[in-house]
Fold this protein.
Amino acid sequence: MGLGAAAGALNVSCRNVSLPQRTKPIKPIRGSWISIWWDDRRHFYWNEACRNFTTEQWQFAVKDVAELGMEYLVLLAIAKGGQAFYDTPLLPKLPMVCPDPIGALLTAGDRYGVKFFLSSDWYGAWDHRALHDPDRVAKRFQMMGEIAERYAHHRSFFGWYWPNEAHLSPYFTPDFIAYVNECSAEAHRLTPKARTLTAPYGTYRAVCDDQFIQQLERLDVDIIAYQDEVGCLRMDAAGSAAAFERLRRAHDRVPERALWADVEVFAWEGPPNQQTSPLIPAPFARVREQLEAVSPFVDRILIYQYQGLMNKPGTRAYGGHPDSTALYTDYTRWLKTAGRGV
């Protein structure tokens, strides 16, 4: 009886929490994912350009986002396709012009005030063993140790990103909770002051009930940046607003877990949601609707992603689709008139 009454009270509070009014200003973009290289065609328009970036170009890439008022960059991976982006005995190194792109990014972050979340993976291809296979876990932790030893002295090393992302169905799986908690425990040991972030998908199925809130309480992560899934065509802006409203109600019950958004600013050149289909910039009219949809409910807005999909005209770190300068220009025009100071 007591447990049932408590669960009932929790569900009522999920429904009745006072939420911000939709008349609140639209929040600007405060950060983005960034990649060094990716092993499929989704990053087709900037993959090779980034492989050929010099140290100075990686630093200009950080300067460009800082000029837009972005505070955070999330490094998508520290290795991919069996090749590492730094020197490690675990894997061969990806051939690149820049000898240390991670170091170049963090050095620029130090200079321009951008905070980085560094990925803990990918040692190998993702499959069902990626979360808990003992050999994979040992190598993941070895890579985290190497990254911490090499880069944690940077002021811009703000935190870690757990890239084996959860699918809400509508709950986190026990395996995912265990994975996050194991990674966070290792992060606390290596870098006690670092923050932790993950970015689940399946947001269209988001719920606010006692089971989900209990999972939030068990999940040892500081920030959850849920994917808005508009780019992946699982929701439109109205659906995104409804999902993030439910998530806001849940996170208000567990304020230790910050609620951020991962807004997808891409469209698809070919069939959607295919690894063979390059990402291209979405029109700003759609992106603005996405920002408006999540703004009343989230603490910060990140995007997937500035790199390749937004380029400052004349940048010395150009890589991406030809329309990327148009998305940049349209966003900066809006930012100057409506988004500054929000």
